[in-house]
Write a sequence for this structure.
């Protein structure tokens, strides 16, 4: 029998085994109800976690808008302060030349620019506080998601293991197999050819009593298997072997008949395939598999920090350059106190004191 014919024969005789592997099964109603409930709770927690991520993204957008506004408002506040300082210095050196209305107008612009910067800083601080609280909530929710998912997967594995053992017990049944195999002798002596005939008969008995996962062979291998690949999937234990009808057929072939008890062996690869098939069925029964989720809030926070670094990059060189020109240094961002004015608390986070306090 050629290898291709042998493979076809094995697939035919293995149909009963394949149907056993793919046989449907039922789960205890209470256990199935529990798995469905676990899956529902897991999906709900995932949705809550996703909602928190969306809230963080929304507040982050508001915060980033405030950050961009602060950049412009800092420039406007510096310009308003410099204009006011210029007028104040000129007024001190030339009393009466600048009208009080001009000074009040400059003071008003400086006040307006400072208040706008202060308000935007407060909005940013408020947004960051909200994001922090949401991140704390997200971490708690994510931990609960992982706990529920672990519990759900663990209980699914228990069902899979129980069903797998049942199917293995059903498959590993001793069978009495009797087959005849004939081999060409070629240049071998009769004793050598006889021995090869016995080995071939044993292999055929092993194949006849083995379990072959037909679906895997046809889908993955597409019927293109080497003899070594096929034999790695064909495993069984032979006992009580009885050889008979051993004789030459003509002058070129030797034939042997074997009768033996055959117990199929389940290879690790076949066990994995069976477990995967059962697991897919279990997921269908309870509503589907739940994929692993990630904590989006963590990624959102990382993106926020990266954007902050990107926004800060242009500001540093500009301040250094202005310092070289003798206009402003980084430590000079704090505005001076104007005559007859009291100091005002700094704006949040950026430590920018007002030029004039009101």
């Amino acid at each position: 029998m050629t290898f291709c014919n042998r493979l076809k024969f094995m697939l035919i005789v293995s149909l009963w085994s394949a149907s056993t592997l793919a046989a449907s099964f039922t789960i205890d109603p209470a256990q199935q109800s529990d798995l469905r409930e676990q899956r529902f709770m897991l999906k709900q927690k995932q949705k809550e976690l996703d909602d928190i991520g969306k809230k963080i993204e929304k507040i982050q957008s508001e915060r980033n808008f405030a950050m961009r506004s602060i950049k412009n408002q800092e420039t406007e506040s510096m310009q308003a302060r410099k204009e006011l300082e210029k007028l104040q210095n000129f007024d001190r050196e030339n009393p009466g030349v600048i009208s009080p209305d001009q000074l009040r107008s400059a003071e008003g612009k400086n006040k307006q620019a400072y208040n706008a910067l202060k308000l935007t800083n407060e909005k940013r601080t408020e947004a960051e506080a909200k994001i922090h609280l949401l991140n704390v909530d997200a971490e708690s929710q994510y931990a609960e998601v992982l706990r529920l998912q672990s519990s759900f997967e663990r209980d699914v594995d228990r069902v899979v293991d129980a069903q797998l053992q049942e199917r293995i017990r059903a498959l590993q049944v001793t069978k009495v197999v009797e087959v005849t195999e004939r081999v060409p002798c070629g240049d071998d002596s009769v004793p050598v050819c006889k021995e090869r005939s016995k080995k071939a008969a044993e292999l055929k008995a092993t194949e006849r009593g083995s379990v072959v996962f037909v679906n895997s062979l046809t889908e993955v291998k597409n019927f293109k298997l080497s003899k070594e690949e096929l034999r790695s999937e064909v495993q069984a234990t032979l006992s009580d072997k009885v050889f008979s009808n051993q004789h030459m057929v003509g002058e070129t072939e030797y034939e042997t008949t074997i009768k033996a008890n055959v117990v199929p062996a389940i290879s690790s690869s076949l066990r994995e395939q069976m477990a995967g098939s059962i697991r897919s069925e279990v997921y269908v029964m309870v509503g589907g598999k739940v994929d692993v989720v990630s904590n989006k809030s963590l990624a959102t926070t990382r993106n926020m920090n990266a954007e902050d670094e990107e926004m800060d990059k242009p500001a540093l060189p500009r301040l250094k350059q202005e310092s070289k020109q003798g206009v402003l240094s980084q430590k000079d961002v704090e505005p001076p106190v104007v005559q007859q004015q009291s100091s005002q608390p700094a704006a949040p986070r950026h430590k920018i004191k007002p030029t004039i306090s009101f």
In short: Residues 1-172+268-358 form one domain. The chain has nine helices and three strands. The chain has two domains: 1-172+268-358, 174-265. The mean pLDDT is 77.
